[in-house]
Structures are given as structure tokens and as C-alpha cells.
Amino acid sequence: MNKPVVILGAGITGLNCARLLPRSLDYGIYEKENSVGGLCRTVSQDGFLFDYTGHLLHLKKPGIKKLVKTLLHGQLSAHHRNSWIYSHQTYTRYPFQANTYGLPEKVIKECVLGFIEARTASRPGQGGTPGFEEWVLRHFGRGIARHFMFSYNEKLWTVPVKELTAEWLGPYVPDPTIAEVVTGALLDQSRRVGYNANFYYPEYNGIQSLPDALAHKLPGIHLQEKAVQLNVHDRIVKFESGLEIKYDRLVSSLSLKELVNMAEGLPLTVKQQAAALRYNEVLNINVGIKPALTAAKHWVYFPEKKYPFYRVGYTSNLSHHNHPAGTSSLYIEIAYRAGSLARMNRHQVNRQVNESLSSLRQVGILEHPSRIVTVNTFKISPAYCIYDFNRTRNVTMIRDFLKKKGIYSVGRYGAWEYSAMEDALEWGRSTAEMIKKSYR
After folding, report:
1. Residues 389, 163: contact at Cβ < 8 Å?
2. Is residue 79 in some structural domain?
3. Bridge partners of 406?
4. What is the C-alpha to C-alpha distance for residues 180 and 284, in angstroms, rounded to an integer?
């Protein structure tokens, strides 16, 4: 079979790319799962809707915002972020660096004085890519670094902060002024700063409603077709079902490591560069709870090692259609080093669930006498692509080589990046534009 364009992965990047290709250009979308969405999916269990961990729509780009509002017309709810950090046995508002009010006096003093010292110190500039550790110390000081930035990020990324660059930061880490830090130490302020101060979430059908809307009336979608072999020179992709397709252009939102591993005829250097790419994994535990919880929070960060999870989110506070009446639902995220989840059997998963529920009671999220109605777990691998000091060079060289062979490796995992759903949609748009130009 011949197809001018083959798209591997029916996540929102692949779907948006296909949606914007001219119908005269014959294409096919091939997805290994039995539904569209990739990791932007929702499952239903015992009346609860559980997303593949927290998926919120932070829409900043006018074109993408217009697209999503059109696709989900009449069912998008706007939310003002209500997020917190739990440390030192107390809840403080997010972001930590601008909201130390409520922490022990000694901790507040260490954080505020450290911040002022960092901002007023005269340091010579250094060339090259900044390390995350250096960036945090220069911007926030040792107090904030110690009590949140270092502990939380090592828990999330599963590697020492010395091994991370600052390339991934972008808009994701709010950078307050001295006045904002001092005010946040003296007052319980509710001023929201950062890229996620406001967000949208579908009222119905969980985050699955977005890929479903993208796929609506879109031809050429083939489910349960897993790509297993790729000949980059002859431009042939083979699937587990036995299907073989000769293509002219290939769009892949698969993991860059997975794509390279299935490809034949690649230079050894490309294989080595892909092998060096690092990532973490996330065990996503979803729970349905009865009676309903009273907290109005959206999510909470946990930087301290004594709690297994790094974040807990309130799915039921995103839409009342996500859970039956009289109940609540939570998602719990626990990070692991690459390869850990494959070795984790059902007994070990259940033990982690029980430890997490015990910790939720310790921090007051599960209120007595909360009853667990249902539990659902997802193993997400890869979850976060690690920005070590080799990542950018390796990713650039791999993707450049593939592009010369007519392969566009795009999206969060195809470009091996830290990004949001808005960026995934933009990847689809820009890739469709590149393909159209290549045929002119």
C-alpha cells in the first residue's frame, strides 16, 4: 500500500496535523490503542471519569484558543487556579517562592532573606547553557531552593538538580519581584501569578472530549495498528498486524526513543544519541471517594520525601460530571526512574496505592471517615523527558537526520520536550504547514 503521508499516533498532535492537511493529499493515521487521544485520554469506571493524570488547557495563543473553543463549543469551563503546596505540616499557596505565609518563622526568614540576597548580589555572568541548580540559586536564593525548588524537582524528575539544565523552565516557573516575595511572606494573598493562573477544562467526557472533537468526521483513522518496524531509506513502515505502507512523508508523535529503536539503517551515532535520552515514569493513581470532600482545591504539590507522591489533584473540582453525586475523585502522581514501572507487579502497585492513601489521610486530604469507592491506576512511560546537558544536542541531531529522510518527529515525545497540550496542537499545525510547503 502507498500513502503520501503516514501519521503515527492519534494524539492531539497527529489529529490536528491531519485535520489541516488538504483532503486531496492521501494520508492515514495509525494508532496502537483502541481509541484516539494518546495520553490525552479518559476512562470511565464505576461512574467516575479518570484522565491519564492531570490534563488542563492553558490557552495563551489566540489561534489555538480559538480552535479549542470552536471544537468544544458550549462545554468549556473556565477556572481560576486554586493550587497549594504542603510542607512543614501546613498548606501554603502556589507558587511557593511568592507565598511563604503560614510556614514556620525560621523558614520564612531563610526564604525571604535568601531571595533578597540572591537578587541584590553582584555576580559575573557565565556563558553557555545555565544549569537548573545555578539558575534557582541566582533567582531565588538558598532558602527557597532548599525548602521547595530542589526537593520538589528532584522528586519530580528523579535525578539530582545538578544534572538538569534550565532550558525547560520557560513560562513554567514564576519569577516574582522582591516586593511580591515580601508581601507573600507577610500576608495570605490570593494573587495568582504564572502561566497556569487560569485554565479551561471540558464540562463533559473529561479531557477525552478534545481528541474526540479533533477526530470527528476525520477520515483515515486506523486504530489498533502498532508500528513495529521502519525502513528510513525505502520509506516503508510495518505494523504488528502485518500491514506495510510505503510513504513519502511520515509524521510521528511516538516517543523519539521508540521511533529510533524501530528504525532500520540508522547511523550508529543516531542510535547512541537516542539511547542517551533520559526520562522518568509516573504511576497515576485515581481514586473515587465517598462522601464528597469539602476542599475546593485544584491540585497540591508535595516537595517532602516522606510523602510518596509529588502532586495530588482534585478531578471532581474540574467538572461535576467527572463523578457521581455525593462523591469526589482525586488523581495521585508518583515519579519513578526509567524502567521501574515495568518491573512493578500488581502486588507492588497495590502496596503503593495503600501507602498513598495512608499519606492522604496524614495530610488531611482524605477526611474521616472517607471511603474509597473505586481505584484505577495508569503506568505512564515515558512521562517527563529529562533535560540533562546532552538532551538538546542529541534531540536536535536526531530530528534533523530524520527530517532529511522525510520524517517529522513532533509533539511532546517526538520532540522530546516539556510542553503542554496547547504546544501539542501547535506542533500539529506547524507540521501540516511544512508538509504542504514540501509539495508545492
Report:
1. yes
2. no
3. none
4. 34
Dihedral sign computed on CA atoms, order 345, 347, 350, 352: negative
List the beta bridge partners of residue 201: 77
CATH of residue 236's domain is: 3.50.50.60
**What's the total number of domains in the chain?**
3
Give 376-432 pLDDT, tens digit per residue.
999 999 999 999 999 999 999 999 999 999 999 999 999 999 999 999 999 999 999
Do 177 and 219 share a domain, yes or no? no
Instruction: Please tell me whether residues 233 and 298 are part of one structural domain.
Output: no
Mean pLDDT over 189-213 rounds to 90
What are the grid coordinates assigned to 212, written together?
Answer: 474526540
Decide: residue 97, CB within 10 A, 0-12 exposed, 13-18 middle, 19+ buried.
buried
pLDDT tens, position by position, 8-18: 999 999 999 99
- To the question of pTM greater than 0.85 for the whole model, the response is yes
- Angle (deg, nearest 10), helices 421-438 and 62-71: 100
Domain of residue 315 covers: 280-380
Is 238:30 a contact under the CB 8 Å cutoff?
Answer: no
Which amino acid is it at 266? L
